[in-house]
Design brief:
CATH topology of the largest domain: Rossmann fold
Structural class: alpha/beta
Bound molecules: zinc ion
Number of helices: 11
Mean pLDDT: 93
Distance between the termini: 37 Å
Strand order of the largest sheet: 3-2-1-7-8-9
Strand content: 15-25%
Number of strands: 9
Shape: globular
Length: 260
């Protein structure tokens, strides 16, 4: 399905947003679960972008984002992440990020590895990065971690602490499990909320997408904001089709949501 170029707040959509607002107003505890669609409005590069890029299109995602790919050619993997970091350094949070960041007591469970929610002003303590974060590297031997400058990311290097391991991006690669603590907190939260907002995800990547089912099974209502119907559509109590950068500011205006 082609994505709409713009999202217009039609009468039909406005009415649905009002319905969703009522769900949120009546809820004591809410959480937000987001994916690539949230950052797409900012122009964050995705795998699809690298598929059309002159240099990177020749590589399979498994060569660029897996432990095997890193073992095979670590320089190539680091160069690819640094290309993505450079792109990320040139984009800004969009109104969707800003609307979410104004909800200071709302926990953000995100599959995004970018730092746009943080840059929109959200406290890092309120964000659970299920797939890690591209803003950090860590040693694959001792775990030593350091933040990297997005516009000047260091090239392939050994760990300066143990001198044995190699520094790699702190993102979850194909075949790797999710960070224990972030997953534990997200899972626990989704069992104890009244409404789960699901923003900009096609809900096709597991286990992360399973959080929507967990929330639903434990009695939460599900409000979806996405540019198209997704694998989670059948779980939605209300589905708002359109860009999150347009819908979220309207949906969250005047609300003070809480995850605790
Ligand atoms: Zn080390």
């Amino acid at each position: 399905m082609l994505e709409p170029k713009t999202t217009e707040l039609t009468n039909d959509l406005i009415e649905k947003i009002q319905q969703a607002k009522q769900f949120l107003e009546q809820a004591s505890r809410v959480a937000c679960f987001s994916g690539a669609g949230l950052s797409a409005d900012s122009g964050v590069a995705t795998f699809r972008d690298s598929e059309t890029h002159a240099l990177w299109s020749q590589f399979d995602p498994m060569e660029l984002a897996s432990p095997e790919g890193f073992a095979d050619n670590p320089r190539r993997v680091i160069d690819w992440y640094n290309w993505r970091r450079e792109q990320l350094s040139n984009v800004e949070p969009n109104p969707g990020h800003t609307a979410l960041a104004k909800q200071r007591d709302l926990v953000q469970i995100t599959q995004n590895v970018d730092d746009l929610l943080e840059r929109a002003g959200l406290d890092t303590k309120r964000i659970l990065h299920l797939h890690g974060t591209i803003t950090h590297d860590h040693c694959n031997h001792c775990g030593y971690s350091e933040a990297v400058e997005l516009s000047q990311s260091p090239s392939y290097r050994f760990c300066k602490k143990c001198h044995q391991g190699e520094m790699r991006p702190s993102v979850v690669w194909f075949g790797e499990s999710l960070p224990d603590e972030a997953w534990r907190q997200a899972d626990q939260l989704c069992r104890n909320i009244d409404v789960l907002m699901v923003v900009g995800t096609n809900a096709s990547v597991y286990p992360a997408a399973g959080l929507i089912e967990i929330a639903k099974r434990h009695g939460a209502s599900v409000v979806i904001v996405n540019t198209q119907a997704s694998d989670a559509s059948h779980l939605a109590d209300i589905e708002l089709i359109g860009k999150s950068g347009v819908i979220l500011p309207s949906l969250l205006e005047g609300l003070q949501l809480n995850s605790f």
